[in-house]
């Protein structure tokens, strides 16, 4: 690592801070120089310069014609070895977390804002309970209860022989088998707690720049709707992303982690105590009393978990460094102790107790499905009530994006839990048709509801064929319609090339498909809600008889449902393999990240406000890094700074600019290109990137310019008009390719770049130069104290 940047002797320097996008980039590529030096940072995220520019501040006369380029590389925050693809298994948690940030904008309605946050957190809690219950279904019900009770099944899988009820071993008693199998879901919950705690320490434990964290009274509700004053100005005049505590949610994440961990342990304890208490119900003695006491204890702790989840949301008005250590420690610990007691209770010797049928999982999964559906519907009602009288027509799904995405999170968790249970049941049941025993014993099958949920997967895919076909037809028609505008843009009347024109028109038509995402999400979410309700109704109609999921239906319907259930079961297994394979490729292959990674990077951009087991938020490291660097450099040099962000890097740049003090923002220009700020974030997250927020960003930063192409499927205009003497942020649409045919300047055919290589366009340098010219002259330099100079030169991201 290089020595600290030397303190300048005179003002006048200009800095261009480059922030790459989703695909990631090396410092050598960003700076177009093989000799780069790390100025500050570590291997996870760092700022680099060319070796020849290392002492640029000491020689500003060398850089009068161009700014000093610096590259902030953050790709290691979201990429790495293939093992990180396992984070994709946390996708339902990430999607639920997204729903929190998709609420409509609201003013003066703190009660509704708080209720919206509470409902999303409750949806997230049900996901933890659902996936833990699925692990209990596989380990306790299918393996330890059903398979171990069947001699043919234990003979087919010798590693289960010591659990066989027919061998009469110590572990052959049903309660002891269940207690031993409970280790699997308990270990899963412990792993989720460990990953959440570890990723927080590794990625999100970086404090934002200090100075805004003077004591402020804690608001009575979620601070998204707070309107009290703070040390940096009135909260109502400061956007949410500019609040001091926005990128440091340590307190809430710790609370939620404790609550979700306890909920997982309590789910396992409930499965154990319910099975044992059901057997003891008719037998007098101490065991009956103990069973009731343990069930009451589980219920009491469950109420405490609900209270912890509902009680408090995010604290953003200040840098909140507090952690409620007593709550964070005792709640998971008490739940784990109760789980151990229930395991001892279940392992109590009960002569004559045999495992037959299934454990009472149907009622649990059915109740969870109904609760999730009710919460999503309530979330939709609150989202509608939060709508302003003048609703932005570009907001995705008319402000119902949050409820729709929450429904998708529940659907993903249901597919994963039901799919795993169904596949394990098919595996234990032998090579016959799923659910039809082939080992001569009773059929081994999951709860009926999970079988019905597997059967609706092919139906959902068929429903998606219609909008997919319509979009394909529309793309072809748009490509034909755009041919004339392509030739007009390039003034190609004298050199028409049908092939070249068709390529450019098709590129523009395909790029416009991104704007159809709300339609697809709405169709999938609505169909999922209806099909989920049909699954619950079908399970009840069939009498919840294990192994006979469709016996209560008409023979033709039962035959069709059985076929779709078998197909859905196999599709889940195949989809899971493809899911992990694509995830590994997205982490290791830059080209795959450009197509797959944008969705993942959007999800992990936001802090963990609803689900603590979601993948880590890279912005809680990247945004403080950028804020520290801009603040320290402008304070130390008095120079001008252009922060230049591509794609997702433009979102990080905007978030970092919002965190700057007004005096620093007056010396900063923002250049965005290929930016999803309005096209994606503004439509789906209107409370944080809506029209008013983006217009406010334009008013607070000294100047802002946005570049985009019609062939870019991700970036687009930010739609901030000219106001108060400021020009419109969006420039003219950049032509892509830069030349239609061969010219003297471009003797070889130019490629269609789409979302990449914006800096290769000559317009990029012109817009950057224009921004620098609009910035005020450099301030006369005043040497800062040694401590401040050290802090500024190092640009540390931790407080």
Automatic annotation (TrEMBL):
Cited InterPro entries? AB_hydrolase_fold
**Alphabetical UniProt keywords:** Membrane, Transmembrane, Transmembrane helix
Entry's transmembrane regions: 85-103, 115-135, 178-195, 258-277, 289-309, 330-348, 363-386, 398-421, 452-473, 517-540, 560-583
Q: Where is this region: Disordered?
A: 211-230, 776-799
Protein name, per record: Integral membrane protein
Q: State the organism of origin.
A: Streptomyces tanashiensis
């Amino acid at each position: 690592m290089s020595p600290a940047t030397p303190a300048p002797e005179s003002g006048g320097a200009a800095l261009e801070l480059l922030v790459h996008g989703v695909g990631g980039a090396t410092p050598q590529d960003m700076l177009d120089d093989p000799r780069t030096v790390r100025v500050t940072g570590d291997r996870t995220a760092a700022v680099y310069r060319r070796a020849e520019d290392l002492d640029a501040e000491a020689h500003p006369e060398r850089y009068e014609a161009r700014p000093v380029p610096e590259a902030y590389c953050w790709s290691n925050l979201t990429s790495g070895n293939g093992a990180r693809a396992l984070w994709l298994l946390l996708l339902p948690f990430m999607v639920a977390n997204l729903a929190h940030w998709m609420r409509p904008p609201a003013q003066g309605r703190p009660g509704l804002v708080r209720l919206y946050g509470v409902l999303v957190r409750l949806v997230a809690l049900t996901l933890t309970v659902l996936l833990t219950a699925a692990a209990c279904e596989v380990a306790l019900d299918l393996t330890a209860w059903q398979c171990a009770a069947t001699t043919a099944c234990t003979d087919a899988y010798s590693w289960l022989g010591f659990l066989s009820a027919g061998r009469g071993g110590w572990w052959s008693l049903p309660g002891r088998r269940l207690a031993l199998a409970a280790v699997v879901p308990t270990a899963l919950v412990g792993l989720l707690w460990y990953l959440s705690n570890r990723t927080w320490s590794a990625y999100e434990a970086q404090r934002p720049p200090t100075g805004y964290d003077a004591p402020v009274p804690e608001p009575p509700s979620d601070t998204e709707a707070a309107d009290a004053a703070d040390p940096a100005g009135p909260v109502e005049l400061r956007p949410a992303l500019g609040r001091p505590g926005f990128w440091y949610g340590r307190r809430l994440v710790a609370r939620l982690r404790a609550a979700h961990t306890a909920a997982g342990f309590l789910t396992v304890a409930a499965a154990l105590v319910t099975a044992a208490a059901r057997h003891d119900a008719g037998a007098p003695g101490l065991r009956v009393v103990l069973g009731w006491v343990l069930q009451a204890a589980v219920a009491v702790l469950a109420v405490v978990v609900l209270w912890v989840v509902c009680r408090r949301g995010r604290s953003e008005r200040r840098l909140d460094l507090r952690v409620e250590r007593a709550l964070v420690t005792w709640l998971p610990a008490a739940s784990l102790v109760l789980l151990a007691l229930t395991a001892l209770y279940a392992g109590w010797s009960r002569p004559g107790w045999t495992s037959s049928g299934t454990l009472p999982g149907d009622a649990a999964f059915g109740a969870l499905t109904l609760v999730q559906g009710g919460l999503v519907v309530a979330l939709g009602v609150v989202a509608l009530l939060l709508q302003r009288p003048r609703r932005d027509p570009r907001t995705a799904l008319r402000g119902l994006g949050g409820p729709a995405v929450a429904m998708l999170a529940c659907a993903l968790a249901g597919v994963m839990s039901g799919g795993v249970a169904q596949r394990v049941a098919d595996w234990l049941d032998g090579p016959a048709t799923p659910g039809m025993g082939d080992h001569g014993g009773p059929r081994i099958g999951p709860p009926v509801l999970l079988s019905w949920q597997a059967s609706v997967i092919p139906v959902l895919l068929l429903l998606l064929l219609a909008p997919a076909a319509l979009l394909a037809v529309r793309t072809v028609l748009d490509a034909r319609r755009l041919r004339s505008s392509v030739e007009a843009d390039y003034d190609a009347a004298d050199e028409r090339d049908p092939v070249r024109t068709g390529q450019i028109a098709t590129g523009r038509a395909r790029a416009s498909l991104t704007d159809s995402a709300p339609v697809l999400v709405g169709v999938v979410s609505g169909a999922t809600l209806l099909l989920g309700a049909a699954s619950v109704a079908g399970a009840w109609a069939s009498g919840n008889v294990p192994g006979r999921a469709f016996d209560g239906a008409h023979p033709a319907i039962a035959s069709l449902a059985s076929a779709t259930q078998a197909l859905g079961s196999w599709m889940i297994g195949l989809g899971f393999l493809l899911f992990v394979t694509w995830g590994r490729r997205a982490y290791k292959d830059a080209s795959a990240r450009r197509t797959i990674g944008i969705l993942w990077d959007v999800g992990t951009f936001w802090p963990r406000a609803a689900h603590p087991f979601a993948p880590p938020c890279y912005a809680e490291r990247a945004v403080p890094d950028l804020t520290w660097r801009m603040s320290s450099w402008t304070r130390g040099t008095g120079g001008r700074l252009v922060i230049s962000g591509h794609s997702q890097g433009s979102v990080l740049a905007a978030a970092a600019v919002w965190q700057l003090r007004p005096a620093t923002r007056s010396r900063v220009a923002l250049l965005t290109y290929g930016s999803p700020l309005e096209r994606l974030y503004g439509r789906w997250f209107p409370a944080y990137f809506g029209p008013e927020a983006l217009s406010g960003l334009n008013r607070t930063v000294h100047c802002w310019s946005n570049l985009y192409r019609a062939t870019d499927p991700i970036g687009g205009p930010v739609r901030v008009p000219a106001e108060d003497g400021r020009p419109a942020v969006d420039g003219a649409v950049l032509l892509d390719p830069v030349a239609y045919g061969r010219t003297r300047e471009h003797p070889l055919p130019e490629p269609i770049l789409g979302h990449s290589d914006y800096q290769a366009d000559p317009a990029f340098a012109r817009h950057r130069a224009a921004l620098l010219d609009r910035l005020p002259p450099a301030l006369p330099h005043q040497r800062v104290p040694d401590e401040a100079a050290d802090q500024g030169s190092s640009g540390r991201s931790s407080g």
